[in-house]
């Protein structure tokens, strides 16, 4: 294998051949430790108390099982892994205390992946900051460093933690944690501590400098190990970063996105609650960005403070709020997070996120300048606006796309959806298809025009396998999931777009799902019949892996199983391509029609090799089922 470059629109090898990626996130269960078992609905008291002694070695799978999984994924047509490597997995032992065994394990996984023909990029995965705040990502000591007591945090219920509420928890409950005080505070300190928390110093350094220094160092150390590997494309900057409180114009309202009943505490109320105070909080029925107040509920009756002894709210330290002479909370600076002392409004992306990405890139490129940096903005955006002149081969737009409504309301009708980028409810199948097309166009524009031109790669897209409860799981009928996947992937193909599906969890079962917060997206399950695949008719589909030429047209009809690919000669002396043709659609063989050329088919590797006739400038290939 060789390192790939980008010409703006495509990934290319050293000879200029176009490489198209069909990738898979490996793995959903890699968010949690293997020892002790971090499956989130299991009691995590021990792994929370002893968070410095956990181990992620064996996530996504033991090295002894790698061959089984790599062969399976290769047969399904994948050629790229987005390999989840949470910060906690690297540095759980304490600041600067690295898990050397895990580093060597990841090196071995990447070496084996390359030997099977897979490219890899490293995903510094996080969701709502950490396991201890209801998600995954950062080590526990990051919370302790700012004065938060992890055990008290769990006891306070300031964040929604799966194992503490298994009966009422759903696959979208964790969304609410983005608005919770601990999560919003840690993200704010990580990205904007120098400006918004100048008095919070750790070992003589501002909290932002301290946290980012350790984050950079942990992944730089991994980059040094992976530098010799041609199969490693690069590193993501951070999965689904969040602004925390940055840009909040006022602090007395709840601004969370949710569908269903939820606690709608404002940031000001949560600051007050964090210090062990009781507060009357509105309970909402929320529908997206809006909600209806149902009643009020007294929160934190036990008066649990999340702070260690002699520690208190960071924002009270910085004068955002305080107590009046009677002990009641006073909001002193409602616009503290929205503008600087000169009155200039903060802009999260330009003021904080992009400087972080630049610094991350500098650290990684100090090891290997050819590593790509797969960048993400906040969820719900097609990409960053990055107008500055930058090396064209450095940054790759890797934002995500999901039908969030499908995750929040699994049994929603198929004529109802949510426009993730514009935050609008979409009604009607025709309008949904229009929205999907426009979403892909927005992503493409963000990659080619709003950033230094790059191919872009949709870093995550997937559909819950438990949309209709256990019905699909036990009947092995994934028609609903296949319809949703196919609708999106048709537009992905028409735009010749690279994509990484969410996800492949090798330890998925019907009962445990992906082992994280009630999610069940894995395209594989131990309990599924046959080779364990789920919704494979929509997922394992033909595509051009390699092209000596310029792509012109690419389509696959799931109903008729007709695959068409057209490419032009471009600057190549002769046209050629390699097509993946999966057995799931062509169990009885294929009929192939070509214009001007010859082909051969390897039924074991599921690859069709086409060689174009000299003298032609345009080639067309059509594959049908026998």
Entry keywords:
626 residues, alpha/beta, 7-stranded antiparallel sheet, globular
Describe the structure.
- By secondary structure, the chain is an alpha/beta fold.
- It is built from 16 helices and 28 strands.
- A hairpin with a 1-residue loop joins strand 11 (279-288) and strand 12 (290-299).
- The two termini are 34 Å apart.
- The mean pLDDT is 93.
Low-confidence stretches: none
Q: From the alpha-carbon coordinates, what is the Rg to the nearest angstrom?
A: 25 Å
Characterize the biggest β-sheet: 8 strands, parallel
Mean pLDDT: 93
Category by helix and strand content: alpha/beta
Individual helix count? 16
- The first-to-last residue Cα distance is 34 Å
Question: β content, as a range?
Answer: 15-25%
Physical arrangement of strands within the biggest beta sheet: 16-15-9-6-5-4-20-19
What's the number of extended β-strand segments?
A: 28
**Shape category:** globular
Report helical residue fraction.
25-40%
List the helices and strands and how they pair.
Elements: E1 5-6, E2 11-12, E3 18-19, E4 22-26, H1 45-49, H2 66-75, E5 80-84, H3 87-91, H4 100-115, E6 119-123, H5 141-145, H6 150-156, H7 181-196, E7 201-202, E8 205-206, H8 207-226, E9 232-236, E10 258-263, H9 267-274, E11 279-288, E12 290-299, H10 314-317, E13 321-323, E14 329-331, H11 348-365, E15 372-375, E16 395-397, H12 404-408, E17 416-419, E18 424-427, H13 429-450, E19 457-458, H14 471-475, H15 479-494, E20 498-504, H16 536-539, E21 543-548, E22 550-557, E23 562-568, E24 576-580, E25 590-595, E26 597-602, E27 607-612, E28 618-625
Helix pairs in contact: 7-8, 8-11, 13-15
């Amino acid at each position: 294998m060789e390192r790939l470059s980008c010409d703006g629109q495509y990934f290319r090898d050293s000879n200029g051949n176009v490489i198209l990626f069909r990738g898979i996130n490996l793995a959903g269960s890699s968010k949690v430790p293997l020892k002790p078992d971090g499956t989130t609905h299991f009691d995590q008291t021990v792994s929370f108390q002893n968070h410095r002694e956990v181990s992620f070695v064996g996530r996504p799978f033991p090295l002894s099982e790698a061959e089984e999984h790599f062969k399976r994924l290769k047969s399904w047509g994948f050629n790229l892994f987005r390999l989840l490597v949470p910060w906690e997995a690297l540095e759980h032992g304490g600041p600067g205390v690295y898990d050397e065994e895990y580093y060597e394990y990841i090196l071995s996984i990447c070496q084996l992946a390359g030997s099977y023909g897979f490219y890899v990029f490293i995903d510094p995965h996080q969701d709502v900051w950490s396991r201890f705040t209801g998600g995954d990502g950062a080590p526990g000591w990051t919370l302790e460093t700012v004065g938060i007591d992890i055990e008290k945090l769990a006891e306070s219920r300031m964040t929604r933690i799966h194992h503490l509420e298994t009966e009422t928890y759903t696959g979208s409950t964790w969304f609410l944690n983005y608005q919770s005080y601990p999560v919003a505070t840690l993200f704010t300190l990580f990205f904007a501590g120098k400006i918004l928390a100048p008095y919070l110093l750790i070992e003589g350094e501002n909290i932002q400098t301290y946290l980012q220094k350790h984050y950079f160092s942990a992944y730089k150390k991994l980059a040094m190990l992976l530098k010799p590997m041609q199969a490693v494309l690069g590193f993501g900057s951070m999965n689904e970063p969040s602004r925390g409180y940055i840009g909040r114009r006022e602090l007395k309202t709840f601004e969370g996105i949710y569908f269903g009943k939820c606690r709608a505490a404002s940031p000001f109320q949560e600051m007050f609650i964090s210090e062990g105070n009781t507060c009357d909080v509105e309970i909402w029925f929320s529908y997206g960005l809006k909600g209806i107040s149902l009643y009020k509920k007294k929160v934190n009756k036990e008066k649990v403070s999340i702070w260690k002894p002699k520690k208190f709210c960071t924002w009270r330290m910085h004068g955002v709020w305080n107590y009046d002479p009677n002990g009641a909370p006073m909001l002193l600076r409602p616009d503290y997070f929205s503008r600087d002392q000169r009155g200039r409004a903060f802009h999260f992306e330009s003021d904080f996120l992009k400087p972080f990405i630049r610094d991350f890139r500098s650290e990684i490129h100090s090891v290997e300048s050819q590593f790509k940096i797969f960048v993400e903005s906040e969820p719900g955006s097609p990409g960053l606006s990055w107008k500055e002149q930058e090396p064209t081969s450095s940054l790759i737009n890797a934002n995500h796309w999901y039908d969030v409504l499908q995750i929040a309301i699994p049994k929603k009708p198929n004529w109802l959806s949510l426009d993730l980028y514009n935050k609008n409810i979409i009604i009607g199948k025709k309008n949904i298809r229009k929205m999907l097309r426009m979403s892909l166009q927005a992503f493409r524009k963000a990659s080619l025009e709003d950033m230094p031109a790059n191919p872009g790669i949709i870093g995550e897209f997937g559909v819950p396998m438990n949309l209709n409860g256990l019905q699909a799981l036990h009947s092995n009928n994934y028609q609903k999931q296949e319809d949703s996947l196919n609708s999106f992937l048709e537009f992905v193909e028409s735009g010749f777009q690279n994509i990484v599906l969410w996800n492949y969890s090798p330890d998925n079962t019907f009962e445990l799902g992906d082992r994280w917060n009630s999610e069940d997206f894995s395209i594989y399950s131990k309990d599924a019949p046959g080779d364990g695949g789920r919704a494979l008719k929509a997922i394992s589909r033909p595509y051009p892996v390699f092209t000596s030429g310029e792509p012109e047209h690419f389509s696959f009809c799931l109903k008729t199983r007709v695959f068409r690919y057209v490419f032009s000669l471009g600057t190549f002396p002769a046209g050629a391509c390699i097509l993946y043709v999966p057995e799931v659609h062509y169990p009885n063989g294929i009929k192939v029609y070509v214009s001007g050329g010859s082909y051969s088919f390897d039924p074991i590797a599921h690859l069709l090799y086409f060689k174009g006739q000299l003298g032609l400038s345009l080639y067309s290939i059509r594959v049908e089922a026998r």
